[in-house]
Amino acid sequence: MYLISNRNLCSKEKYIKTIVEAAKNNVEYLILREKDLEYSELEKLYNKIVLALKENNADINIIVNSSIELYKNYPVCGIHLPYNLFKDLLSRDYEFDKTKKLGLSLHSTAEVIELNKIIESKNINIDYITLSHIFETKCKEGLKPRGVELLKNARDLTNIRIVALGGILPQNIGKIAEFCDDFAVMSTLFKSSYVKETIEDYNKNWNKL
């Protein structure tokens, strides 16, 4: 499971507590996605999260979203990039750290096909892609979801690890497990009063299959 951060969904205290609870309950990755923050504020937040994890003897792999500075300056697990930013960095011959993970946000099979060509021509390794949004979600209110078909079609096109994103709930996870390698959540954990139980619900329904 990937947890995508959003500090606007809850109080500051609940935000840190949710991340710690997720780490203690075996959520593998945290994508630190606070794209509106200036670097100095993002840096402070990152260090606050790391300290809270240490104080609670908890561990989670932190992947930073979009911030090349944090990616370069700290021992994060990796970076997650919007597809267009990834292509822009490649066009400027940016060299990614091969010891860190690289994940991308994709939204169509056309992008998957294009990415395959980039990987072949540039000899670059992509650790995973998120495909979204699969189901209706308030984060993308008014936008039609792309549905399970996007996962099915992408699975036929690539061997890259596929992470489903968007409206993924314990009750609909059974519809996607066959067509992806993992899934990402955001509001369901940050708004949950019982984070451990919510994670257990996800895992129970995921592992059934």
Automatic annotation (TrEMBL):
<protein>
    <submittedName>
        <fullName>Thiamine phosphate synthase</fullName>
    </submittedName>
</protein>
<keyword id="KW-0784">Thiamine biosynthesis</keyword>
<dbReference type="InterPro" id="IPR022998">
    <property type="entry name" value="ThiamineP_synth_TenI"/>
</dbReference>
<feature type="domain" description="Thiamine phosphate synthase/TenI">
    <location>
        <begin position="1"/>
        <end position="188"/>
    </location>
</feature>
<dbReference type="Pfam" id="PF02581">
    <property type="entry name" value="TMP-TENI"/>
</dbReference>
